[in-house]
Amino acid sequence: MEIKLQPICRPSGSRVDFGAELSGIDVETMSDDEFHILRQALYENQVLVLRNQMSLSPRRQYELTRRFDPAAGVYSHGKSIDKRSVLHADLTTVPDQPQVQVIGHGFVKEYEGLSDVQLNHPHHKAFHKSPIPTDENEDFTHFYRWHIDSAMYDLDPPLVTSLLAVQVPKGRRQTCRYDDGTDATLEVPLGTTAFFSGYRLYEILSDEDKWFVRTSKVEYAPHPYIWMSKAKSRSNGLGIVSEGLELPDEEMPSFEASKIKTYPMAWKNPVTEKLAMMVYPTCVRKIHLENGEVLDNLPEIRERLYRLQRPGIDPCYIYPHDWEEGDLVLFNNHGVMHSIVGSFRDDEVRIFRQCNMAASRPPIGSTDCLSTI
Ligand SMILES: [Fe+2]
After folding, report:
1. Dist. CA 180 → ligand 1 center (Å)
2. Residue 361 and residue 238: Cα distance in Å, rounded?
3. How remote is the C-alpha of 199 from its chain's centroid?
4. Where does the pLDDT of residue 372 fall: very low under 50, low under 70, confident under 90, or very high at 90 and above?
5. What distance in angstroms lies between residue 208's CA and the mean position of ligand 1's atoms?
6. Could you tell me which of 100, 83, 147 has the C-alpha nearest to residue 357?
7. Percentage of the chain with pLDDT > 90?
8. Which residues does UniProt assign to the signal peptide (predicted)?
């Protein structure tokens, strides 16, 4: 079989410079040389689409995903997700493969050792401050939450996530509205996964902002998905509206200071060495400046990050994947951010499998030496 790599289909007007479709490699039997090609392709294109992978078992999906980080092993959010976490309702673990989650929408009678499962595709109305009015939900939607797959406490963000589309309701499209003071919209297939590139985001910053991003770090809240569980999102999914709804310390579960995550704002690609601005705005608590000063005024921090990140989600920079059953998408979770999109009807059943593992190392910062990675 000949190995082929071609850019993903981009709509006219798109300025997306990442994403490729790879064919000619059997991911279940590939040699180390073939895996090397796959890994290079992933880190050069950030999002890789492999078609017709329906027969991939959860075990094989786990093995493939782990090959990018052989020392990893625990699911990205740990062994179990706290019931108070906003993620709790969205994830169903495959019984024999705890690193693999079944996600999607609708009632599933039987799947991979699970029975009578009600899947729930997160609907933005549960998280956004100003959701789309109910009577417009059929046609319009919002980006749910731009994120990096990560617990952002105790565990490091997975290097790579794999997503397999098992069952996909087809035919409908929706208009994703930004509702952020601009009239920006993006036409998307129902239930798309949308991506933007942290490399492109970094590239379009001013020189002054690049310096700030290169030299500053962000500190994430302890147990961030519990901390922000009462807060509401901006309508474009890029961070939280500051209303003081984050849980006060006395309502938070206990935490260990040593497990709080502080990461550089710019993460280096291990193959191309390019820098990506990778900041998960929803979970940010503080900013550490180069001179040692720590910024902890949450509304101000959020405004500052929003000004930097908002240009990166302009419609021309978004790749909304049009899922086909059997698609396996692998993405560089240290180089792109992504969002769930869309609202399904109750009779629309969608089944996906997601696999990722907490990384064996933190993200590579702009000044880290790659030879030690
Ligand atoms: Fe995700």
Report:
1. 22
2. 26
3. 15
4. low
5. 30
6. 100
7. 89
8. none
DSSP state of 237: S
The Å distance, Cα 145 to ligand 1 centre, comes to: 9
Mean pLDDT of 95-117: 92
Residue 370 has pLDDT above 80, yes or no: no
CA–CA dist 296, 298 (Å, integer): 6
Going from the Cα of 148 to the center of ligand 1, the distance in angstroms, rounded, reads: 6
Residue 241 three-state SS: coil
∠ CA 67-70-71, rounded to 5°: 160
Identify the structural domains of the chain with CATH numbers, from first to last: 4-9+16-372 (3.60.130.10)
Distance 139 CA to ligand 1 centre (A): 23
Instruction: Return d(Cα 93, Cα 358) in angstroms, integer.
Output: 15
DSSP string, 98-160: EEEEEEEEEEEEEETTEEEEEE-PPPGGGTBSSPPPGGGTTTEE-B---B-SS--BSSBPPSE
Query: What's the CA-to-centroid distance between 147 and ligand 1, angstroms?
Result: 6
For the chain, the helix, strand and coil percentages under 3-state DSSP, each to the nearest 5: 20, 30, 50
Distance from residue 100's CA to the centre of ligand 1 (Å): 13
- Mean predicted confidence (pLDDT) in 181-210: 97
Q: What are phi and psi of 171, to 5 degrees?
A: 110, -35
CA Rg value for the chain: 20
